[in-house]
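Troubleshooting: if your tokenizer reports a length mismatch, compare your output against this known-good record of 78 residues.
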Amino acid sequence: MMIEQKVIECAAETYGVDAASITRDTNLREDISNQSLKMVMFISNIEEELDVLIDIRDAAKLITIGDFVDKVSELAGK
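Known-good structure output:
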């Protein structure tokens, strides 16, 4: 659950939205923002906060917060 909460916090900070409005099903492109620069900042924040490295090609395939949580969990070996 810690990874999920951190990913949600990173999304809220990057996109300037209330963390309480973000769930695993939140679609970053449709529900929050389709700005690629914000997505790069979001990925950077996740990498910094959770000490992982997300390949940009992999990140392009991630759509929901849950996708990011699953990818970070995979990378962190959890």
